[in-house]
Task: structure prediction
Amino acid sequence: MLDKGIHPTVSEYHILWDALISYESRLEKFSSMSTDEDKQLEYDEKLQDIEGAKNSLSIAAKNDFELEFK
Result:
C-alpha cells in the first residue's frame, strides 16, 4: 500500500515551524498597521489559518519524532 502525504525530517519540521512563525509575525504587523478594514480581515483570516497549520504541524512532529513546538 502506498503511503500518502509528506513525511518531513526533523530538520524540515524546524524549518516549517520557523517559516510559519515568521509569516505569522509579518501578518500581525500588517494587520495592526492597516487602516483598510477589508485588508485587516484578510490578514486576520490568514492568521487563523496559520494557527491551524501550526497545530497540525505540532501534532505531526509529536507523532513522528516526539518533537514539541511552542
Summary: The chain is about 75% helix and 0% strand. The radius of gyration is 15 Å. Helices lie at 10-33, 37-65.
